[in-house]
Amino acid sequence: MSNIRDANLHSDEEDDDDFAEEDEDPRPEKRQKRAPSDDEEEEEDDEDAPKPSGRDKSRNKSNGADEDDEIEDLEDDDDEDEDDDEDEDDEGPRRRRDRGRAHNPFLDTMAEVDEEDELDDEDDDEMEAGFIAPGDDDEELRHRAGDDRLHRQLDRQNQADFAEDLEKVAAEMRDRHGGRQRHRLGDSSTVTPKRLLLPSVNDPSIWGVKCKPGKEKEAVFTIMKKVQDMKGTRNAFNIISVLERGQSMQGFIYVEARRQADVLNALTNVPNVYARSGMILVPVDEMPDLLRVQKRAEITPGTFVRFKRGKYQGDLAQVIDVEQSGQILNIRAVPRIDYGAREDLDGTQKRKRVVSAVRPPQRLFSEAEARKHHDKDVHATYGSKRGIFTFQGETYENGYLVKDVRVTALQLENVNPKLEEVTKFASTGDGNESLDLQALSQSLKASTDKYAPYQPGDMVEVYSGEQAGMVGKVTRVRADIVSMSVQEGPLRGKDIDVPFKGLRKRFKEGDHVKVMGGSRYRDEVGMVVKIVDDRVTFLSDLSMGEITVFSRDLREASDSGGMGTAAGKYDLWDLIQLNATTVACIIKIDRESLKVLDQEGATRTILPSQVAAKIPPRRKDAVATDRNGSDIRIEDTVKEIAGGENRSGVIHHLYRGFAFIHSKELQGETGGIFVARTNNLATMIAKGGRVASSGPDLSKMPEMSKKPAGNMAPPIIPRQGGRDRIIGQTVHVRQGPYKGLLGIVKDATDTTARIELHSKNKTITIDKMKLGFKEGATGKILSYAEFVQPKKGFGGSGGPSYNSSSSNTPSSGWSGSRTPAGSSSWAAGNRTPAGAHGGGGGQRTPAWAGGAGGDGGRTPAWASGSKTPAYGANDGSRTSDPYRDGSRTSNPYRDGSRTSDPYRGDNDGSRTSYGQPVGSGGRTPAWNPGNRTPHYGSGEPGPRDSGTAWDSGSKTPARSLSSVNDQWNDSYGNNSSTTARTPAGYNATSPEFSGGYSAATPGASGLSAPTPGGLNAPTPAPVSAPTPRANAWDAPTPGGPISAATPGASGGDNRRGGYYDAPTPQAGGYSSAKTPGAWGNDDEDDAPGYN
Amino acid sequence: MSSENPDYKWRPVPTNHFRYLRACMVCAVVLTLDEFTRKGCPNCHPVLDYTNHALEMAQTCTSPIYEGCISIDKPTESWIAKWLRLDKYVPGVYATKVVGDLPEEALDNLNAENIEYIPRDGSENNLE
Fold this sequence. Notes:
Radius of gyration of chain A: 55 Å
Number of helices of chain A: 45
Strand content of chain A: 15-25%
Number of helices of chain B: 4
Largest interface: A-B, 75 and 68 residues
Oligomer: heterodimer
């Protein structure tokens, strides 16, 4: 209190002081009020200290205060008024001590005087002025003994009288000056320097108490209320103040009091305050820190701030204007508008909220788009300048959202605007507008968690503060303190610590520098040409242009010539990864930055260093599914059919569910690239007519290749996307228990259909293949395959080579014979070592089959292969030829075969059976030859032998083979059964032929000629030829093709090359007839000769 | 205390009125806007006269942006009050920091009364 007084005195006259005293004084009444309690206490006091001091004590108590108060007590000073409302219980040891002192009036007085010294003259004045309520004193005096008192009393009396006069004056003054409030405020007119206010041990202590975070303010008010409520009662609380520091000291409140017990007492039962969980005494020297206030960064137009909450949370905004003494900021930001948001919701606010949970990307306001969706809501403000619109209650200027925002909703510190964000604000007009360097610096300077701008070795200069002008080299950086060793001036050689603030890097003209983070010119290298304050201009090595940046963003460059970073590493339209969830397509490459379009459709400008990874061009077979369920791939032409603007273009990238599409029509800011979800797309043109090319793919699929040839339909039918075409069709069941019934397809899977039968009230699931579809126009019944792929002859066209067998079969009717025997056997042949030949043969066969002479074709292959190698293939071959002849005239042959019986009874049986199959018989011969050959090989030159050989081989290869030649048997082992048959046929013939050996040959030739006839020749040749040779080692295989052309020739070729094998197969195939003949000769002598 | 300033009695503020609280830019006392409007600032009243244009005065001379609340029950005793130079003010709730710029007229008034205005936005620290 005395301090206050002091302050008062400084400015005002004593009068004033007096008034002050008076002012504070509804005292008399107060006193009255207090009196009773005082008395009570006095009694108690008496017990404690049965002497005049009792009064003091009570006084003291009531004051609940320090020495000053004591003085005042004695003086009956009124200042207590302020304090004495609370007469609490004892205040502890100190009080008691005071009381003790009070025993001796002298001491007491002395003590008072001593203490007064601290208090300045003013207190003396007070004493003189005698702010005493006489009545009280009188009463009390009675209890007191001693002249002193009496004297004093007299003095006081006088003073009181005098004071009355003064009071009058004071009253006048008060009226004149309008009361004490002004006075109070006026007190501050002289500011005591803070260092004189530092807390001492005499000041109350401060305890920190735990509190529920966020409830600090509430607690403070609650406690204040509690204290006020209890004021004047016996249980009044004795705390002095309660402090809360909000954000900086969350979870704590601080209570100022003399004793900890007071704190505890006052805080009991205060909600959200946990006084009992322990409190912390704040050390005296930390008390000023507790009250430290940090001045907030000045907000000036142009600085960047961030939204703290709401739709724009975290977004950068630029301050345009500061309003209402800094409480409201007019800012602009890049809007996030969902133009379509409320379109279909009819303004149901609640749902809008939900919808907006996904926040739209940042995009400048587009009038066109706004009008498209909400024409009524768009209002253009003409008059001032164009480009100002109000839309749904917000104002947009040049595309930016312009808004008044309370400061509390904005983050003003540590904004750290990123380059990409800032550039959005820079490109207001034509996109070339440069950054507002000044504005950016405002925001950057304030930020604390920037990259470490100083590194050991940097030359720095102190430009503000006490050490301004120091130049030195950084030796260490810790937090934001730089230790530097001074290199110039009187402090040379000394180490000093300097905070970042007030420090800047020092460069000389001519230094070679490189731009570090934080600047859009990052990584630029150049030579310093000019330095103004902390702005350094340097000549870029790359662009040869002058660039100005802050010195803090520069470093001495150790390396020269930074790359144009963006240029080298990335190409236009590269797909890059920005973070774990975001990919983007590069739509523009600048020298120092990349412009990208991310998967959300937002364009942004980034530094190459912000690219997490480049996603390598996807395998070309990356597949996505469009809205219709069809596959779409890179380079397909697609069209947006939902959720977009009907754009179409060519897919550049597929990433997860997104497609980056390039549209030629859509140039402009994204360079023609746009992003769409694949399920919003529809295929317009698949690259390269993919459907046709699906054949080969299918063949690669394991499950396809495993299927038997006869069941080829499904693999050939390309998968149909979307709704199955057969659904809703009326079909009839062609197989199975429901065969013949009509029904409607209700549902379908890949292979089955659910059919609701017309006749029975029943729905069945049935293989699609078993269904017949009625063609609308013709009424023709189509198979599933035909129905699905009407234009294709399905089997035939699809892969002639493959299907040939099956297709032939049906048409020619040969199937029965061939397919079973031929195809299977062939296949078998293929597999087996000899197989190579067989394989070739197999393929041929079909072709041949078609050609009727097919038999010969096949057989030859086999036969030749087998024969030739082992024996004088010639014989075999020749024989075979004759066979073919025979084969053509199947009957005769068969007969022959039968006739052959004589040769081998067994064979006959087998033959006959085979022979009957007609064609087969003919073909079989081909096999037989193989078998025979062995025989021949066996060295039985005789026609019979051959014949027999044939028989055996043909009929039951196994047997025959075994009997004849082990080797052969082995080789044929697998096939034997199949081969056996065929041979049978042959055998039959063979005998005959054998008989007409020569004839055979010629016949063969003649025959062969026919066989090759047209179709057969080609097909077989290519296929078979290769395979066999491959095995055989015939490069000549190519001959195959040739042979195809002219079977005979081919035959020759093959043999040649393969001598044994090669020739046999192909030759066997076709030429078997001819070639064989030829062969026969050749084999014996030279294959080459033939060729 | 009420004895000191009969015109002023601190009133508790219900929690739901916290958002109306403002701090005087001169003395940092925290009251609701309503209180400022009706009674003016208990410490600054004569200098900053709220009697006319009460609302306007309350809006320009007080600020809703403040930090730290101190309820001071015994201003004269409190070191905190002394440190923040609140020791001559009425008991009540004060702010440690008040952000805002006092209007020119108010500054003129203070100057006319020879009162040195201490900004309470933290800038004073620099004087230490």
